[in-house]
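Is this the right way to post structure tokens for a design question? Let me know if I should format differently. Anyway, here goes:
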């Protein structure tokens, strides 16, 4: 009996059947790009695989990649698999301490270094003596370069076959709740989930339309790795464009003209705020309501965003305000929400043409089993479920039920039609002094729907009542030195507080809105690399200020 194909087997076929089809487009700077066909991509991977094999690493050896998204990230991943190894990708924004932890915990035998913005601050995290190879777009280093190796190394002749249960990827979580954990994904489960993703994309694009996508969310995160890279390895017809930098993002989008676009809530909000900076929201809403003209205006807005060709747009990684989804739909973008985790290879729930609603994350994807525990926790059994946590069997015992369901830690509700609504994190629930639990996520969604707000966090453990801390929109922050603008913002936030409280039960109502003194960022430790809020970090920063805030008068305070 022939074993089912895994992702690497598909890749070997693409190198033959799609040899001259462009697979990857890499910006080189100054408007220049390099295109790599399937034949070229696999040839490069085979050459690097031959080099890795010559190092005589153990079977399954962990080989790490520290790089922003680029064509050589995917080539390196394929080379690692061909050489019998396991890939360990590290977020390109991680600190030196976290880089060292991941490299040492995983027992990495080698590190690929690629595109990075803060290499000078990160290099101290690379253990002395660890072999390193530099990608073509890497910062200046003393490491042997990819091009030098592949130029002198013949391609690996054999087609390495990997066993179904061998570990393909060791994915370290972004650490929003503490030290990153290594999530093990086998070739079998990774491929099963990826095949399901390809089938899902065809629901919207049609079976004969090739995916065109811009890759810019970190490939070290499961969302991009699964739905962009691994799905493309199975499909073989996708064309992946890479973003060069934040400054060139719009040009990169217009080069790609993607028909599929995935992002995270914070970026969807920033795109909207960029539109509002050019046209006041009230004026835009009025124009959109006019028949015929509204469609023309919406099309123009989408073209300005580089998304006028997008047939499918998706948001994941964190909750997105329903009002934001409705706004994108009003301008003609089919924005949907999905749900997945590192532990299930991002293969869990997605909105479909027949089952979708703003505020819901869709229905279970094919072959996904889901149930809600008595405590309200979502529990899932997915084709992409992880093998387990690397070196942490104790955690495996905590997160899996006796019958094999993964405890997500998320609270949820299912409608009679099967639509799932995420209502918060089990561990994020907190009690105020009133003795009742408050779920912050639904309240934050109400706050985040306001165009003034970039991010918000609701907290108040043991306090007389809950409070909200907010980061104002980037377009507003520079104007706050003007007393008139500051007064207007204060008035709008006061109105926002009253309108949100009017929708909440007495024990959930907010005592105040506090404006953060500086934006939360990856750099100051308040956001994870995937831009989720590190609640414990923010709460620790403001802890000393809480007594004064609760004693102060007024609904809006400035930290």
């Amino acid at each position: 009996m022939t074993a089912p194909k895994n992702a690497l087997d598909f890749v070997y076929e693409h190198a033959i059947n799609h040899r001259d089809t462009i697979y990857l487009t890499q910006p080189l700077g100054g408007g220049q790009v390099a295109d790599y066909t399937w034949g070229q991509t696999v040839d490069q991977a085979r050459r690097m695989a031959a080099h890795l094999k010559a190092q005589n690493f153990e079977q399954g050896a962990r080989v790490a990649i520290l790089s922003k998204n680029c064509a050589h990230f995917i080539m390196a991943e394929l080379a690692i698999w061909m050489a019998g190894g396991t890939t360990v990708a590290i977020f390109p924004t991680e600190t030196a301490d976290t880089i060292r932890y991941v490299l040492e915990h995983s027992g990495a035998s080698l590190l690929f270094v690629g595109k990075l913005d803060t290499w000078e601050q990160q290099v101290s995290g690379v253990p002395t003596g660890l072999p390193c190879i530099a990608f073509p777009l890497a910062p200046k280093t003393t490491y042997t370069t990819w091009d030098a190796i592949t130029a002198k190394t013949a391609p690996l002749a054999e087609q390495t076959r990997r066993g179904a249960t061998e570990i393909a990827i060791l994915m370290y979580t972004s650490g929003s709740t503490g030290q990153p954990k290594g999530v093990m994904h086998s070739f079998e489960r990774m491929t099963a989930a990826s095949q399901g993703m390809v089938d899902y994309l065809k629901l919207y694009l049609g079976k004969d339309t090739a995916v065109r996508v811009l890759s810019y969310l970190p490939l070290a995160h499961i969302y991009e790795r699964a739905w962009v890279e691994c799905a493309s390895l199975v499909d073989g017809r996708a064309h992946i464009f890479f973003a060069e930098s934040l400054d060139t993002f719009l040009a990169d989008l217009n080069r790609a003209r993607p028909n599929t676009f995935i992002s995270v809530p914070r970026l969807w909000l920033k795109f909207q705020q960029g539109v509002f900076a050019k046209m006041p929201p009230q004026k835009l809403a009025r124009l959109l309501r006019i028949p015929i003209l509204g469609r023309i205006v919406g099309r123009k807005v989408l073209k300005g965003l580089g998304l006028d060709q997008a047939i499918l747009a998706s948001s994941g990684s964190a909750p997105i305000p329903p009002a934001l989804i409705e706004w994108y739909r009003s301008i003609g973008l089919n924005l949907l929400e999905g749900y997945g985790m590192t532990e299930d290879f991002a293969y869990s729930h997605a909105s479909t043409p027949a089952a979708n609603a703003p505020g819901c994350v869709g229905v279970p994807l094919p072959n996904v089993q889901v149930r809600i525990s008595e405590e309200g926790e979502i529990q899932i059994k997915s084709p992409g479920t992880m093998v387990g946590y690397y070196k942490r069997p104790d955690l495996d015992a905590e997160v899996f039920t006796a019958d094999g369901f993964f405890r997500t830690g998320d609270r949820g509700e299912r409608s009679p039609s099967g639509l799932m609504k995420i209502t918060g994190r089990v561990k994020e629930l907190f009690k105020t002094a009133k003795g009742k639990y408050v779920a912050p996520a639904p309240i934050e969604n109400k706050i985040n729907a306001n165009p003034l707000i970039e991010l918000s966090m609701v907290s108040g453990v043991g306090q007389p009542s809950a409070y909200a801390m907010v980061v104002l929109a980037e377009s507003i922050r520079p104007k706050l030195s003007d007393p008139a603008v500051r007064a207007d913002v204060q008035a709008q936030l006061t109105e926002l507080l009253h309108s949100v409280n009017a929708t909440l039960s007495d024990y959930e109502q907010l005592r105040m809105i506090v404006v953060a003194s500086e934006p939360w960022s990856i750099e100051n430790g308040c956001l994870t690399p995937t831009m989720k809020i590190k609640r414990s970090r923010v709460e620790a920063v403001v802890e000393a200020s809480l007594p004064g805030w609760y004693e102060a008068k007024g609904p809006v305070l400035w930290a």
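Format looks fine. Someone answered above. Worth noting: The longest helix spans residues 187-205. The mean pLDDT is 93.
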